[in-house]
Design goal:
This protein has a four-stranded antiparallel β-sheet with strand order 2-3-1-4, sandwiched between helices. The protein is built from seven helices and four strands, in the order βααββαααβαα. The two termini are about 25 Å apart. By secondary structure, it is α+β, with helices and mostly antiparallel strands. It has one domain: Alpha-Beta Plaits (2-Layer Sandwich), CATH 3.30.70.1290.
Length: about 200
């Protein structure tokens, strides 16, 4: 999931993912869903969320970035920092000392010198521009089926998972906690990639 390349484009839809450190289910352990929806609401003030799933230990997001002084990398980095502080706060309140120690032990010497105390997320994030409708639909399908796959099996159908945009697309019902914009309302994307 490593990405260090800066994505400079605006008025562009991106598929973004990030993961809790060591795949620890920190979102679930701290019941962070409400806080993630608050972050999504902040994002929606300038940009549009077109799809998402919040899993117990990672998050996938389709977001359309409008004109902004910050690129998608900076926007995502700021969001991770926003969420990390709250996760640590909730872990402290719940006296989850063993998990806090794990997060402390993963901070590098350089980071400690910059006053960083906990590593909450894996270092890298996945950020990919969606230039074509087929690619966006592939990512949207992946996002919505995530709760059904592998070890998770959290629900029987994608639209049954409450922390996802699947019901918006499958049942045409707006999510109760966050406004989702249909990707088709953002403007036409080419259907297939053209050979360059």
């Amino acid at each position: 999931m490593a990405i260090k390349r800066t994505q400079p484009e605006h008025d562009q839809t991106y598929f973004c993912s990030f993961t809790c450190l060591n795949w620890i289910p920190l979102f679930d352990l701290t019941n962070l869903y409400d806080y993630i929806y608050n972050w999504f609401s902040l994002l929606n003030k300038k940009h549009q969320i077109t799809g998402f799933v919040i899993m117990p230990n990672h998050l996938h997001l389709l977001i359309h970035i409008r004109e902004d002084k910050n690129n998608v990398n900076k926007i995502l980095g700021n969001g991770k920092r926003f969420l990390a502080y709250e996760i640590v706060k909730r872990l402290k309140e719940a006296k989850q000392e063993d998990i806090l120690l794990t997060l402390e032990n993963r901070v590098s010497i350089d980071e400690k010198n910059r006053k960083k105390k906990h590593r909450v997320f894996e270092v890298s994030s996945d950020i990919k521009a969606c230039y074509h409708e087929n690619f966006l639909l592939q990512k949207l399908n992946y996002i919505h089926n995530n709760p059904l796959k592998g070890k998770w099996k959290l629900v029987v159908t994608p639209e049954g998972y409450p922390h996802s945009s699947a019901a918006f697309y499958e049942l045409n019902t707006q999510h109760p906690h966050i406004k989702i914009v249909h990707y088709k309302d953002l403007g036409l994307l080419p259907t297939v990639e053209t050979v360059q």
